[in-house]
Design goal:
- By secondary structure, this protein is of the alpha+beta class.
- It has a single domain, classed as YhbY-like (Translation Initiation Factor IF3, 2-Layer Sandwich).
- Helix content is about 35%, strand content about 20%.
- The protein is built from 3 helices and 7 strands; from the N terminus they run E-E-E-H-E-H-E-H-E-E.
- A 4-stranded mixed beta sheet has the order 4-5-7-6, sandwiched between helices. The chain has a 3-stranded antiparallel beta sheet with strand order 1-2-3, covered by helices on one side.
């Protein structure tokens, strides 16, 4: 897919490189997205089969429809959760805004954006 994470950590401060174009969020934009995500419930929850093609397709649909979503990953191993978050980012071309415990917040602008991010 041509996606590369140059820096990955749980607070979403990495830079996502998409086909030569860097989608980078400023601190102000991250704070805006975090506050917008606060009242949201997880729209996708991984089950016993883990991260499958069907789950990735569901996340794609949710991102296109909502732009900002929460995903619940019931994995106990922190490193495994981080790997799942990275895989979701790579396959959906979404930015990990934040992860707290077993909940991650992802953002990807839709073809017709609903959220208006603050200027950089």
């Amino acid at each position: 897919m041509g996606v590369e994470y140059s820096k990955f950590n749980g607070d979403g401060s990495g830079h996502l490189t998409l086909s030569g174009k860097i989608m980078e969020l400023s601190n102000k934009q991250k704070q805006f997205l975090k506050s917008a995500a606060h009242p949201l419930k997880p729209v996708v929850m991984l089950g016993g089969n883990g991260l499958t093609e069907g789950v990735l397709a569901e996340i794609e649909l949710a991102l296109e429809h909502h732009e900002l979503i929460k995903v619940k990953v019931p994995e106990d191993d922190r490193e495994m959760r981080q790997a799942i978050y990275l895989t979701i980012s790579e396959h959906t071309r979404a930015v990990l805004v934040q992860s707290i415990g077993k909940i991650a917040v992802f953002y990807r602008p839709a073809t017709e954006p609903k959220l208006r991010l603050p200027r950089v």
